[in-house]
Amino acid sequence: MSTQSPRRSASQNGGHDIVVEAAWLYYQDGLNQNEIAARFKVSRATVVNYLQEARERGYVQITLSPEAFKGHEAALQLREKYGLREAYVVPDGNGERRVTEIRVARGAAQWLPRLLSSGDRLGVAWGKTIYDVAEFLETIAIDDLTVLQLVGSMATPYGFSADVCSSYVARKFSARCVNLHVPAMLSSPEVARALRAEELIANQLDEISHFNKTLFAVGSCAPDSHVVSSGVATIEELNWYIDHGAVGVLCGRFIDENGDGIEGPLDERMMGIALNRMRAPETGILVSVGSERVPAAIAALRGGYATHIVTNQSSAEAILLSGG
């Protein structure tokens, strides 16, 4: 009996790669694993190994059609209630928060290329959710696409900053990238005004304000939220905004329950896109996951920042129930 490994046997199979053949028979011709095993005169377990190897080599990329997630009841109700063009709702992760986050990020990453076209200018926000989306994007070249960093950078506990999010998205799409080479939050309004007057920064701020599509998430106003952990706001500053009606954070700006910006002590120090510019884009893609972000997501939807949403089932139900 031969002791050759499946990979060694594949290399000697008449010059053909049995892994590729097995993948073709299974995914393209529709044969089941037992039928493939009989054809190759190997065990079913060996066929399972062939198919696993095909995935590991990157020969097989399994995606689910967006129609599976856009056509069920929660997605349709979100569209109707908030006047959205599309809603994409993925299943929850059996109570496991990180599993659900990954599902939402994967869903957004699979959907995003379908929403982009040649000549688009895509404004990208920052945060763990957007970073996850960027990680899961397939490498697909989109002609004449420009990716824009919408808010300056700050250190985060996750090991990335806003420029990493935009650069990562641009690289996956072989797109031109315009980054904003300043911190998101400066020490004083005077320093911020001086930097805005610098020609390089002024040009970058002007260029990032011209976009037709956006990819963004919204943060909560919890004490452990991204806006605090990244150093944009202190706990005292966060509480000031909460006392003045803040329910969420969008591109570093605090918004109330209707999505309107709340003018406060941080606004003159913030380096990034003006909040009103984020309203009513040609396409605004909101990615939201987690019960603590439901009030912020509702505010963003009410405020007209999104035309599309990607979320999970329980968040969708909470947005529908709590949205009034």
Task: State the gist of this model.
The chain has 324 residues and is α/β, with parallel strands linked by helices. The protein has helices at residues 6-11, 18-28, 33-40, 44-56, 67-70, 73-82, 97-111, 128-136, 162-172, 189-197, 199-208, 226-229, 235-243, 294-302, 313-322; strands at residues 86-90, 121-124, 146-149, 176-178, 213-216, 248-250, 253-255, 283-287, 308-312.
Would you give an account of this structure?
The protein is built from 15 helices and nine strands. By secondary structure, the protein is of the alpha/beta class. The chain has two domains: 6-56, Orthogonal Bundle (Arc Repressor Mutant, subunit A), CATH 1.10.10; 67-322, 3-Layer(aba) Sandwich (Rossmann fold), CATH 3.40.50.1360. Helix 3 crosses helix 4 and helix 14 (294-302) packs across helix 15 (313-322). The longest helix has 15 residues, at 97-111. The N and C termini lie far apart (70 Å). Residues 1-15 have low confidence and may be disordered.
